[in-house]
Specification:
elongated; Double Stranded RNA Binding Domain; 16 strands; 20% strand
Length: 520
């Protein structure tokens, strides 16, 4: 039987301390429900004494019935001048009515003297008194030994004494915390191994990523005897973040032979990562291991040729195991294999003699040399492939457009666009205003096309990006415009390149509309 590892999620508490992470009580409730559905063992909901938002979250979660997860309220040892029975922090933990609580205490003598400003003996008493009180109130207690590794390296005897105080107080788990994220893997292995020999209480591990070692340290802590890993979804957290539980779970389950989540749930890792990213309103990181959009993407021609023969040549696992999928990109680094793979993926038929794919590769490389970037604009790529193979014709033709910007003395400005297009033998001239020249052009294009192609009413603009490709020419430099559009079914990206930002925007806008018409 594989050994069981406990997964302890602190996205809703430690994760929200990360820059640009701001969750409402309702956001936290939605994430907690998702984590419970996924099968996370412990969900740390927040610090009830710290703010009304966390208090409200615990009120919401009390009314729900989680199936798999145990909710944890977080707090610290009692204040030096109070006792546990009248400590506001501890009373708020009890009021949260969670079955489990997490208590953070000082393990580093430097912190005890300089930050907490109490004697070493007083700190030991506070730890034991706090945990003992919570145990008498019927709570499961996870003790977070803050700065444990720094403390153990500088004063091992005192760091161990703090652990003994927590155990004497009745701690159910001792979580050893690399709070500053600066401990190296060899020290993690050595120290966890030594602590494992000295105590029988189950050990947890809590890593921060300040040296980029949080994942490695967490896996090594497990190998050294830790039974619980604390972390956050997507690695959110203060400074450089906490360990990302997504690769922790994937590595433990798929690579190391441990059991932490039901096997059938592992395929939901990508969905879980994207869900939390969406609720937190933080763009997903494409390069995120296992679940990122680029995690199983292949761009080099040699790589693509190889994975068509054997995917394991350049993939460490089957992407479907974590709910992800393989992507082949087409760019100036591509070979014939990239184009042929992409064509099959998109349902585009190429001549079997291979001549067409070589010509397409050459054409794409020339365009990328001019500044196009098709691996980031797959809508434009699909259109290009179908046009080059004669499987798509432009549904409309631009005859002319004009954009006028009026800047008034009061600071206001008005953008107007006039456009003339032809659809078959029909011609249409329209004008529209907008909040800027591109918006006005977009409005005019839609107005001109709507009677011919009513389905474009279903699409909308999601994002608009402009990048100077090479800035040595100053304001005359060539720019790349990328547009993200969506309808009820999908999001797609298109691209345009020109020295004229309006012309580049027009190219991207036209591709966006044509892609919609292609799919319709």
């Amino acid at each position: 039987m594989p050994e069981n590892i406990i997964i302890y999620d602190t996205t809703l508490r430690d994760g929200t301390q990360g820059e640009q992470i701001n969750l409402s009580a309702e956001d936290k409730f939605r994430i907690a429900q998702k984590l419970d559905e996924f099968g996370i063992h412990y969900i740390e909901g927040g610090w009830p004494a710290s703010n009304p938002k966390d208090t409200r979250f615990f009120q919401l979660i009390r009314k729900s019935s989680l199936k798999n997860s145990r909710v944890v309220a977080f707090g610290s040892t009692h204040w030096p001048k109070s006792n546990p029975q009248n400590d506001t922090n501890l009373l708020s933990l009890l009021k949260a009515e969670t079955k489990a609580v997490a208590i953070v205490g000082k393990s580093w003598d430097f912190h005890v003297r300089q930050i907490l400003d109490v004697s070493l003996d007083k700190n030991l008493a506070m730890i034991e008194e706090t945990l003992s009180y919570l145990k008498t109130e019927g709570r499961e207690v996870i003790y977070d030994a803050e700065h444990f590794f720094d403390g153990y390296i500088h004063n091992p005897a005192y760091a161990l004494a703090t652990i003994d105080s927590a155990i004497n107080g009745g701690a159910d788990y001792i979580a050893l915390c690399d709070t500053n994220g600066g401990t190296l893997p060899d020290d993690i292995r050595r120290i966890v191994t030594e602590i494992k020999k000295k105590i029988t209480t189950p050990i947890g591990f809590h890593a921060h990523n300040d040296c980029g070692l949080a994942l490695a340290n967490s896996l090594i802590a497990i190998q050294a005897g830790a039974k619980m890993i604390q972390g956050t979804i997507n690695g959110y957290g203060e400074r450089c973040g906490n360990v990302d539980l997504i690769p922790v779970i994937a590595n433990l389950h798929l690579k190391m032979g441990y059991h932490c989540i039901l096997h059938e749930k592992i395929k939901q890792l990508t969905e879980l990562s994207l869900f939390v990213s969406e609720v937190a309103n933080v763009p997903p990181l494409n390069q995120r291991p296992f679940v990122g959009k680029s995690a199983f993407s292949h761009k080099g021609g040699i790589h693509v040729s190889a994975i068509q023969k054997a995917p394991s040549a350049y993939e460490h696992i089957d992407p479907s195991l974590v709910g992800n999928h393989r992507r082949v990109l087409v760019s100036d680094l591509s070979g014939k294999s990239n184009v042929e793979y992409k064509a099959r993926e998109l349902g585009i038929k190429l001549p079997e003699n291979g001549i067409s794919s070589r010509k397409i590769v050459s054409h794409i490389k020339n365009l990328e040399d001019q500044g196009y970037q098709f691996d980031a604009a797959e809508g434009s790529l699909e259109l290009l492939l179908k046009k080059l193979t004669g499987q798509f014709e432009d549904p409309f033709t631009l005859e002319a457009f004009r954009v006028i910007i009026d800047k008034n003395r009061d600071g206001s400005n008005i953008s107007q666009a006039t456009i003339k297009i032809s659809v078959g033998h029909d011609h249409e001239i329209t004008a529209a205003e907008g909040d800027g020249p591109v918006n006005a052009l977009d409005n005019a294009l839609r107005k001109a096309l709507i009677k011919f192609f009513p389905q474009i009413q279903e699409m909308g603009l999601v994002d608009f990006k402009v990048r100077v490709i090479e800035g040595s020419d100053g304001t005359a430099a060539k720019v790349r415009v990328q547009i993200y559009s969506r309808d009820a079914k999908e999001i797609w990206s298109t691209i345009g390149v020109s020295e004229n930002i309006i012309e580049a925007s027009w190219q991207a806008l036209v591709d966006s509309v044509q892609y919609k018409l292609l799919k319709a």
